[in-house]
Every structure is written in structure tokens, then in C-alpha cells.
Design a protein that fits this description.
Blueprint: H1 7-33, H2 35-42, H3 46-53, H4 55-72, H5 77-95, H6 101-115, H7 119-127, H8 132-143, H9 145-160, H10 170-191, H11 214-222, H12 225-255, H13 261-291, H14 297-318, H15 322-338, H16 340-349, H17 356-372, H18 375-386, H19 393-404, H20 407-438
Helix pairs in contact: 1-8, 1-9, 1-10, 1-12, 3-4, 3-6, 3-18, 4-6, 4-17, 5-6, 5-7, 5-10, 7-17, 8-13, 8-16, 9-13, 12-16, 12-17, 12-18, 12-19, 12-20, 13-14, 13-15, 14-15, 14-19, 14-20, 18-19
Length: 439
């Protein structure tokens, strides 16, 4: 095996990549948090807000992810990541100048194109710094960028929303976030060294991993059942999670018109930062430990977490008070973090070494077209469909978000199919990587 990078350097790179991923989710989450004020200022419908949070962003994010990942498997990954971060941050800043649905839609498309270059090179870099025995844990740490980014989005909103909650300057918030991301892109370019591809898979010091032709490697990926079931599992689990996060601020405002919005946003930030982050980290570590006994743990642990989250999530939508909702959502957020690290680890471990960035891009294509593109969009449409003269917007929002939670059933089924197929696919991946390193 090639010289393993120093632990301190690996940790610094992992934390920096996690910070970048956090910025990804700050820029993504902030639209949902600020939705009531954006919607009022630009006179947007629930369907239009759902499209902005979901489909308008997700289509370009997922479609561009594939060609960008093709580049990430061939060019300098840290440079690609820095350019991507600067791009999405620039369009985040431009969002602050939007005057109508078309303007803000185009800005969201630009953010989506930039963010498509975030995770594929990051996952690939991490997999070349951590061996398969540590990979789920490392990717679990990286996945902390999701809850920490979401938490930061709430805190930033509270810090920058101004003195009057009725007239939040949402444009200024987008400008400050965008400029901060551009600065971070420069730090990425300076601080990270490009690692050797496949370094953690090579069994002898002087050998290089044989480069598999792209078509052959992709064809191999298409035959790995566990990879596909894991992708569908995380996608269907995240479908409801994205729908909830996109309309949660609006829902709580409808639930209590006298809500203390600053206090509520702070609590939502803390819940995500503590409980979602804890679930992400502890879930990855728990799977790492249980997988030493049986790799089936990658399937049954996520399935169990979602099975428990389903009734709790439904209950959170129908409690009569804001405090009741916040209390019920705590275990839901913890359980929604459990499947992230294991899912991302499977996307890397089962993929041929030289298409790992492409594997991540395809994984995210499935995840984000279904979850990010579908969840908020479906919720926005359903709110408008259910609203009528006899059904209040609060009831319509409850009905819409409760409906999208049905996607958890599909997630449970998908994770159990991982449980069934993974031992065979895992052994095949080990044999494939060993053959590539000794040919």
C-alpha cells in the first residue's frame, strides 16, 4: 500500500471538506427557512416555492453531476471542488438581487450547477485517504456537513434577519453567504493536496491500480444490486426529509401565528446541529462496528431507523403546539441521520476504484432527482391542491407533509434489499479491487 497520509493531515482535509459540504447545505436550506419572506416579497405560490426549493435546483444539480464527476475521475479534484464552490457561492449572492420567480429560478439553477461539483470529488478524495474499514466513519464525519450546515443556516438567519421579524432582509443574507463561500474556495485550493487515486486499495508498495476502461467500469456498476438498492433507500428516506425542511418554517408559522420566530429558528438549528448530527455520526460508527461481524448491518440498521422514524414523523405533523412539534421532531432528526454514512460508504466501497467520483454522481443523481427534486415539489403542489374554502392552509400543509412521509415505506423495503444482496456484492467488490491492483 502507498504511504498512508499522516492522521493529522487526513483529519484537517476531512474537516475542511465537511465545512465545504456544510456550505452546500447552508445555501440549499436557506431558501426553505426564508420561504415565508421570499414568498411574500415576490408573491409566489406554494407550488412555485416547492419548485425553487426542489425541482428547479435538483434537475441541474443532478444532471450536471454526471459530466462533472467524469472530470473528477480524470482531473485535479481539489481544483474542481474549489471552482464548484466559487460557482455556487456566486449564484447564491446573485439570488439576493432576484425581483421575480424567473430571476430567483435562474439563480437557483446556477447554484445547482455549482453544487454538482461538490460531493463527487470530495467523496473520491476521502476514499483515497481512508481505507474501507474506516470509510463509513470518515464519510459519516463528512455527512455531518448536512446537519451542521442546516443548523448554521438557521443561526445565520437569526443573526442577520434584522430587528423586525415581519420585514426580514433576505437579500442581504444571500449576499453575505455567497461572498463567504468564495473566500472558502480559495482556502480549499491552498490547503488540500491531491491524493493518489486508489491508494487505499493497493496491496503492495510499488504497484499501481489498473485503470479499468470507463465503459467496462460503468457496466460493472450497473450489475451491483446493493448499490442501486442503497441509492433508492437514501432517496426515498430523504424524500420526506427534504419536503419537511422546505416547508417547516411555514408550517410552524401557520400552527401558531404568534410564534416567536427567532426562538423557534434557534431551536430548529439546535435540533439539527445536535440530534441530526449525532444520528449521522453515531449511526456511521455503529454500522462500522456491526459490519465487522456482518456487512448486512449496512442494510438492517438504516431500515430499522426509518421504521421507527415513520410514526414519530407523522405524530409531529399533528400535535397541536409548536413545542409539541419540536419535541417530536428530535428523535426523527436523530434517526434520519443514521443512514447517511452507511449509504455513502456503500456508493464508494462497491464501485470500481477509477469511477468512484462517477459512482457518487450517479448515486446523487438518484438521491436528488427523487428526494430533493420530488419532495419539496410534491409538498408544495399538494398544499395548493388540498387548500380550499373548507380546508385551511394549516390543514392542507399537515395533509401534504403527512402524505409524503409514505415514502419511508419504500425506503425500508430498499434497505432490506441491501440486507439481502450485500454479502455477495461486497465480496465481488473486494475481488475486483484486488484483481485491479495485482494485474
Amino acid at each position: 500500500m502507498s504511504d498512508t497520509p499522516k492522521k493529522s493531515y487526513r483529519t484537517i482535509v476531512l474537516l475542511l471538506l465537511t465545512l465545504v459540504y456544510g456550505f452546500n447545505f447552508i445555501d440549499r436550506q436557506i431558501v426553505g427557512i426564508l420561504a415565508p419572506w421570499i414568498q411574500a416579497d415576490l408573491d409566489l405560490t406554494n407550488t412555485q416555492m416547492g419548485l425553487l426549493i426542489g425541482l428547479a435546483f435538483a434537475v441541474f444539480y443532478t444532471v450536471m453531476g454526471v459530466p462533472i464527476a467524469f472530470l473528477a475521475d480524470r482531473v485535479n479534484r481539489k481544483g474542481l471542488l474549489a471552482v464548484a464552490l466559487a460557482t455556487w457561492s456566486g449564484f447564491t449572492a446573485l439570488t439576493g438581487f432576484a425581483q421575480n420567480f424567473v430571476h430567483i429560478g435562474l439563480a437557483r439553477i446556477g447554484v445547482g450547477v455549482g453544487e454538482a461539483g461538490g460531493s463527487p470529488p470530495s467523496h473520491s478524495i476521502i476514499s483515497d485517504l481512508y481505507g474501507k474499514e474506516e470509510r463509513a466513519g470518515a464519510l459519516g464525519v463528512y455527512s455531518l456537513g448536512i446537519p451542521l450546515g442546516i443548523m448554521s443556516a438557521y443561526f445565520i438567519t437569526v443573526a442577520l434577519m434584522g430587528a423586525d421579524p415581519e420585514t426580514v432582509n433576505w437579500r442581504r443574507i444571500f449576499l453575505i453567504l455567497g461572498m463567504s463561500g468564495v473566500v472558502l474556495a480559495g482556502i480549499v485550493l491552498i490547503a488540500i493536496r491531491e491524493p493518489e487515486r486508489g491508494a487505499m486499495e493497493v496491496s503492495t508498495p510499488k504497484q499501481e491500480v489498473k485503470k479499468i476502461p470507463f465503459g467496462e467500469a460503468l457496466a460493472t456498476l450497473l450489475t451491483i444490486k446493493s448499490w442501486w438498492w442503497m441509492a433508492f433507500g437514501i432517496a426515498f428516506a430523504s424524500f420526506a426529509a427534504y419536503a419537511l425542511s422546505g416547508f417547516q418554517t411555514k408550517f410552524l408559522g401557520l400552527l401558531d401565528s404568534d410564534i416567536d420566530i427567532r426562538r423557534t429558528l434557534l431551536w430548529l438549528g439546535l435540533i439539527n446541529g445536535i440530534f441530526y448530527a449525532s444520528g449521522t455520526y453515531l449511526g456511521a460508527k455503529f454500522v462500522d462496528r456491526k459490519a465487522r461481524q456482518s456487512v448486512r448491518a449496512y442494510g438492517w440498521i438504516p431500515a430499522l431507523s426509518i421504521a421507527i422514524a415513520l410514526p414519530l414523523g407523522l405524530a409531529a405533523m399533528w400535535v397541536p403546539t409548536v413545542n409539541g412539534h419540536l419535541l417530536m421532531i428530535i428523535p426523527v432528526q436523530f434517526l434520519l441521520g443514521v443512514y447517511l454514512g452507511p449509504s455513502f460508504a456503500i456508493a464508494q466501497t462497491l464501485a470500481p476504484v477509477h469511477i468512484r467520483a462517477m459512482s457518487t454522481a450517479l448515486f446523487f443523481f438518484i438521491l436528488n432527482m427523487i428526494a430533493l427534486g420530488g419532495g419539496p415539489t410534491a409538498a408544495g403542489i399538494l398544499i395548493d391542491v388540498f387548500s380550499s374554502d373548507t380546508v385551511s392552509e394549516l390543514q392542507a400543509t399537515r395533509m401534504a407533509l403527512s402524505t409524503v412521509f409514505a415514502s419511508f415505506l419504500l425506503a425500508i423495503f430498499s434497505f432490506m434489499m441491501v440486507y439481502k444482496n450485500l454479502p455477495k456484492d461486497w465480496a465481488a467488490a473486494e475481488a475486483r479491487n484486488e484483481a485491479a491492483s495485482t494485474s
